[in-house]
């Protein structure tokens, strides 16, 4: 049984939770230290007891958001395996779902930030690249035997791009149709056995 977190650890996690949601909702530039601390129920002055800088907060928030997304995806994979379905189907259907279309605060950090990632400082680019690599690796592990990294890269990039375009169109018939088309195409091409 893991030890109960200290008050400081619990506060740190609360700040990260708020920052991770804000990061996915507002992008890198839209995350302000004052707002994060206020939403976490804390004063701005306590920020530096937890983080050396705003970039340090954002780097940890990227990691936190990535872990949260991976946990959700792994739960979907486990549930699909229990139903006798293949993991790749669970990834594609979960990622390209209406729930993910709506879930900007809790969805994939890669889809939320990928267009902004290349313009970030080295401190933020490294964890961002790590999230992209992890998404590709998760897809590759889910591929049927013989699946390649190149296939995983195509699937991951199609999912991310499709979700971004669908979010641009909105949570409406157009956005949902785009996701459905991408889902069908990916499943037809890669979920074969």
What topology emerges from the helices and strands here?
Blueprint: H1 7-26, H2 33-39, H3 54-82, H4 87-95, H5 98-102, H6 109-113, H7 122-142, H8 149-169, H9 173-190
Helix pairs in contact: 1-3, 3-4, 3-7, 4-9, 7-8, 8-9
Number of helices: 9
Order of helices and strands: HHHHHHHHH
- Give the N-to-C terminal Cα separation: 41 Å
From the alpha carbons, calculate the radius of gyration and give it in angstroms: 18 Å
Total tally of structural domains: 1
| Beta-strand percentage range | under 5%
CATH superfamily label: Tetracycline Repressor, domain 2
Instruction: Report the principal-axis shape.
Output: globular
Uncertain runs are none
CATH architecture group name: Orthogonal Bundle
Average per-residue pLDDT, rounded, comes to 93
Helicity, as a percent range: 55-70%
Task: Give a structural overview.
The chain is mainly alpha-helical and 193 residues long. The chain has one domain: Tetracycline Repressor, domain 2 (Orthogonal Bundle). 70% of the residues lie in helices and 0% in strands. It has nine helices and no strands. The longest helix is centred in the middle third of the chain and has 29 residues, at 54-82.
